[in-house]
Specification:
This protein is an alpha+beta fold and about 180 residues long. The chain has five helices and eight strands; from the N terminus they run ββαααβββαβαββ. A hairpin with a 3-residue loop joins strand 1 and strand 2. The chain binds coenzyme A.
């Protein structure tokens, strides 16, 4: 399978439900990982995790705009260390808006290595250079300090609180597309 992109230490590729469900389950059955992600992200069996991966892939396919959610693999061990996503932000009713968010979830044992920042930087590049998005957002629960620090390392601009997305109050961060020819 061709990766979506590679970074120095990581490979970002599509999820393969048959192959990846067990590793995805190890990540998403951990309450420390799902703590800020809401109940919907919690899974109780490998089979429901596999179903979740299949549904996500189908949903991305239907959007037909290159957005989705991908597996992050550590090159050195070929272990799945998390998820990186770029997708339309949902409004309070769950309907897609015109705004796009980047998001990151890492396996607990891989926190503290800079992998979310590295994958996030690759995802922003992809969104700007391949999808030609003019701006990419991140939304974070105000108590999720680790995630706020990722937005800072990615030089995303803090825009204050918003209730526009997911039907809850979240901190909004924004990254504008680099000027064409700026070499960023
Ligand atoms: C949010 C989350 C992805 C952040 O993970 P993280 O490991 O702290 O973030 P990064 O991958 O960017 O790593 C940065 C940390 O690695 C350290 N680090 C080590 N080597 C590094 C390197 N080469 N480059 C950058 N940072 C490095 C940094 O110092 C930093 O640690 P610190 O915050 O203690 O100073 C993680 O906490 C998570 O998966 N949470 C659960 C899911 C979630 O809430 N997602 C966000 C929803 S909005």
């Amino acid at each position: 399978m061709t990766p979506l992109f590679e970074t120095e230490r990581l490979i970002v590729r599509s999820w393969i439900p048959e192959l990846d469900a067990e590793q995805a389950f190890e990540i998403y059955s951990d309450p420390e990982v799902t703590h800020f992600l809401g109940n919907a992200s919690r899974v109780t069996t490998i089979e429901s995790q596999r179903q979740r991966l299949i549904e996500n892939i189908e949903r991305s396919r239907r959007r037909k705009n290159g957005t989705g959610s991908w597996a992050i693999l550590e090159k050195e061990t070929i272990t799945i260390v998390g998820t990186i996503l770029l997708k339309p932000l949902p409004d309070k009713d769950g309907l897609a808006t015109q705004d796009y968010e980047v998001g990151w979830h890492l396996r607990r044992t891989y926190w503290g290595k800079g992998y979310a920042t590295e994958a996030g930087r690759g995802m922003l590049n992809y969104g700007f250079s391949i999808l030609n998005l003019p701006v990419i957002y991140a939304v974070v629960k105000p108590e999720n300090h680790a995630s706020i620090r990722v937005t800072q390392r990615l030089s995303m601009k803090p825009m204050g609180r918003t209730k526009k997305y997911y039907g809850i109050e979240l901190l909004l961060f924004q990254h504008d597309a680099p000027e064409k020819g700026s070499g960023e």
